[in-house]
Write a structure and sequence with these properties.
Metallo-beta-lactamase, Chain A; 7-stranded mixed β-sheet; alpha/beta; 256 residues; single chain
């Protein structure tokens, strides 16, 4: 299974418009981060997790033009803002793309992109079919991939993470319930969010909290994503991590 990090940044991306913070001014490509999203490839099946406002450029930059399904963690703009840009992929593949998410998230998408679902607009719009994942015990199968939705807290908002075989992707977490931690045992690779060192944030975990969570889950390797600019420079942060923990960056490709 091949994983491409299309984006590893926070809701505003890095650099932030108008910011003079040293990380935003960095010349290191690893410090430049689009909104967080990953593309999973297995046996010529392509799965996207989250479709933010940078989606079009991310697909062009990574030279990908095929999608078989989209899994949405939650309805915030940095995770769904690019859904209308799947239209060119729908046209190329000549089929609807299934979108999986919570009932609340699907309702939000239908309201925000209402024009996609108007009868007189369908011929030139993205073609989407929706599949609800509110039953957290529901398991999806895409070809030979087993996909398990995971219950995660994002502040007071319940959102989804996803376990796909021995790989798991969790972003925007402020807390991971004990039952979800049990579902994450035996991972080869865990991807988990991190925002900053301190102070504590109401809806996302800090670097210390991320490292403690990784220790609880005990994957063979862990990669941190949804990285805030105030965490610091990529190279300086990563060199202080334990040997099996890495700071993800845009364009990183890993194999599970």
């Amino acid at each position: 299974m091949k994983i491409t990090f299309l984006g590893t940044g926070p809701s505003q991306g890095i650099p932030i418009i108008g910011s003079r913070h040293p990380v935003c001014l960095s010349k290191n490509p690893k410090d430049k981060r689009l909104r967080s999203s990953i593309l999973i490839e297995q046996n010529k099946i392509y799965l996207l997790i989250d479709c933010g406002p940078d989606f079009r450029y991310q697909m062009l930059r990574s030279n990908h033009n095929k999608l078989d399904a989209i899994f949405i963690t939650h309805e915030h703009h940095d995770h769904i803002g690019g859904l209308d840009d799947i239209r060119s992929i729908c046209l190329k593949m000549n089929k609807e793309i299934p979108v999986y998410g919570l009932r609340r998230t699907i309702k939000n998408i239908k309201e925000r992109f209402f024009y996609i679902f108007l009868n007189n607009y369908k011929s030139i719009a993205s073609k989407i079919s929706f599949h609800e994942l509110d039953n957290y015990k529901k398991i999806c199968f895409m070809e030979h991939l087993k996909i398990i939705p995971l219950f995660i807290w994002h502040g007071i908002l319940p959102i989804l993470g996803f376990r796909i075989e021995n790989f798991a992707y969790i972003t925007d977490a402020s807390d991971i319930p004990i039952q979800t931690i049990q579902q994450l045992k035996g991972l080869d690779i865990l991807v988990l969010n991190v925002l900053r060192k301190f102070p504590k944030h109401t809806s996302r975990i800090t670097i210390l909290e991320s490292l403690k969570m990784i220790q609880k889950i005990s994957p063979k390797k862990a990669y941190l994503t949804h990285v805030g600019h105030i965490l610091g420079f990529h190279e300086e942060i990563e060199k202080n991590f334990p040997k099996n923990i890495y700071l993800a960056y845009d364009g990183l490709i890993i194999n599970v």
